[in-house]
């Protein structure tokens, strides 16, 4: 609005006044310069992106990790739990005398794994209370260790702090399976042992398979051979994989 104004001439007629610059405005030379600048920036970004990808590959090759040699199968057949079958299948991608180093089949046995972990925690707590490493499979040794522990505890003279711990703190911690007495720890370990043995009798389905090759070439060959499009991957189309696989 500050470039347009109105005024009146000597005869009283209203005139519209427009501020005018003395530059050339949009010319062909200026347009060509702007176009060349944009083209140069685009080409520079492309070259810089290519350079960064090349440096990324070199940087990745300098840092050797497990992922450089491994592939993960996230949707295996539920009954494919034999590692040797997976080893035999992926061995076709290991060339030049290489081999599949390791195969791990993960099962849907989360409940049993959690119970094993809880059992291990209770066993460590029991050993810590006994102040020595005992054979938890030997019931006589465990009973003798607990008897000795209770005798030593009874021999100690209780003070104010120990009474507060015995009456308030320890009962509260026992609710969360903390600071349990040795007898309770043994009972929980025996209970978990029986539950784990029952869970071991069940058949579990395969959920994930981890395959580790001896060289990076084997891993890359397997990935290239089994590469499919995003839609085929989402729809789990088996026909999208080459017939040789």
Query: What percent of the residues sit in helical stretches (DSSP H or I)?
Result: 40-55%
Radius of gyration over alpha carbons?
Answer: 38 Å
Numbering strands along the chain, what is their spatial order in the largest sheet?
3-5-4
Strand content: 5-15%
Question: Taking all residues together, what is the mean pLDDT?
Answer: 84
Please provide the ordered H/E string of secondary-structure elements: EEHEHEHHHHEHH
**What structural class is derived from the secondary structure elements?**
alpha+beta
Question: How is this structure best summarized?
Answer:
By secondary structure, this protein is an alpha+beta fold. Helix content is 53%, strand content 12%. A hairpin with a 5-residue loop joins strand 1 (4-8) and strand 2 (14-18).
Structural summary, described in words:
This protein is α+β, with helices and mostly antiparallel strands and 245 residues long. The protein has eight helices and five strands; from the N terminus they run ββαβαβααααβαα. It has helices at 28-62, 83-90, 110-130, 139-155, 160-175, 182-200, 216-225, 230-234; strands at residues 4-8, 14-18, 70-73, 100-107, 206-213. The chain has a three-stranded antiparallel β-sheet. It has a two-stranded antiparallel sheet with strand order 1-2. A hairpin with a 5-residue loop joins β1 and β2. α3 (110-130) runs antiparallel to α6. It starts with a strand and ends in an 11-residue tail after the last helix. The relative contact order is 0.14.
């Amino acid at each position: 609005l500050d470039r347009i104004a109105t005024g009146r001439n000597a005869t009283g007629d209203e005139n519209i006044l427009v501020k005018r610059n003395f530059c050339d405005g949009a010319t062909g030379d200026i347009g060509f310069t702007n176009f060349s600048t944009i083209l140069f920036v685009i080409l520079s970004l492309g070259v810089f992106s290519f350079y960064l990808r090349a440096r990324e590959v070199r940087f990745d090759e300098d840092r050797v990790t497990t992922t450089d040699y491994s592939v993960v199968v996230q949707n295996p057949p539920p009954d494919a739990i034999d590692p040797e079958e997976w080893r035999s299948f992926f061995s076709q991608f290991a060339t030049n005398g290489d081999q599949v180093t390791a195969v791990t089949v993960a099962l849907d046995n989360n409940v049993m794994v959690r119970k094993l972990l809880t059992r291990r925690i209770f066993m460590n707590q029991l050993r810590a209370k006994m102040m020595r490493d005992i054979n938890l499979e030997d019931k006589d040794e465990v009973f003798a260790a607990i008897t000795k522990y209770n005798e030593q505890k009874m021999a100690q003279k209780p003070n104010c702090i120990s009474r507060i711990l015995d009456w308030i703190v320890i009962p509260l911690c026992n609710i969360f399976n903390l600071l349990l007495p040795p007898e309770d720890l043994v009972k929980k370990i025996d209970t978990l042992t029986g539950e784990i043995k029952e869970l071991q009798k069940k058949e579990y389905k395969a959920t994930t398979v981890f395959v580790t090759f001896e060289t990076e070439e084997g891993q890359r060959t397997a990935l290239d051979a089994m590469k499919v499009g995003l839609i085929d991957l989402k729809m789990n189309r088996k026909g999208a994989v080459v017939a040789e696989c």
